[in-house]
Amino acid sequence: MAEEAHFRGLERLYAAAAINHAFPSKLEILEAGQSRISFAVPPTMFHAAGAAHGTIYFKMLDDAAFYAANSMVHEHFVLTTQFNLFLTRPVHDEALTARGRWVSGSRRVIIAESRLLDAAGEEVARGQGTFMRSRIALADLPGYRA
Predict the structure, then answer these.
(1) DSSP assignment of 47-75, as one string?
(2) Would the CA dihedral through 31, 60, 90, 22 be positive or negative?
(3) Rounded to an integer, what distance in angstroms lies between the CA atom of residue 115 and that of residue 37?
(4) In what order do the strands lie in the sheet with 25-31?
(5) Backbone angles phi and psi of 142, in degrees to 5
(6) Average per-residue pLDDT in the chain?
(7) Arithmetic mean of pLDDT, 26-44
(8) How far is the C-alpha of 136 from the C-alpha of 83, rounded, in Å?
(9) Thioesterase domain: from which residue to which, for each copy (predicted)?
């Protein structure tokens, strides 16, 4: 499959995932090993102290790193095997962008990292994870094929 078709397939796969109905966001695969996810944090996702719950940080950072990693693997879905978060500052009702970047690996284990940026481009969190190629064929997943 051509690289561009693979990238668009991953974007469709992301959009089709049920979890993204609860967390409305948009994925863009920019090039092999790079992703960007746009997301606005509404007050319904705040914890008791009035800032975004850690779930938001994890989801955005994991997804961005995951799709940067999966952009390097054309036939199979990858799985997150480990992920570390570093939270820098609280997030309130604002637009965020998660940027994912492949770091190394392409056969069995892939390392990717991500940064979560506010509307001014300031980092609010970062993450790094390891991802493993699964036996799940991308072509068999809803949304991947056009």
Answers:
(1) -TTSSB-HHHHHHHHHHHHHHHHHTT-SS
(2) positive
(3) 10
(4) 25-31, 34-40, 95-104, 109-117, 123-137, 76-87
(5) -60, 130
(6) 94
(7) 95
(8) 21
(9) 50-124
Position 93 confidence tier, pLDDT thresholds 50, 70, 90: confident
Q: Which CATH architecture has domain 3-140?
A: Roll (3.10)
Distance CA 110, CA 101 (A): 11
Query: What is the per-residue pLDDT for 1?
Result: 55
The total number of residues written for the chain in this structure: 146
Q: Which residue, among 92, 79, 87, 93, has the nearest Cα to 116 in the 3D structure?
A: 87
Partnered with residue 124 across adjacent β-strands are none
- Distance (Å, whole) CA 65 – CA 78: 11
| Per-residue confidence band for 16, with pLDDT thresholds at 50, 70 and 90 | very high
Give pLDDT, residue 23: 87
pLDDT at 145 over 80: yes
Question: One-letter amino acid identity for 100?
Answer: G
102 in Cβ contact with 68 (< 8 Å): yes
Closest CA to 77 of 8, 141, 1: 141
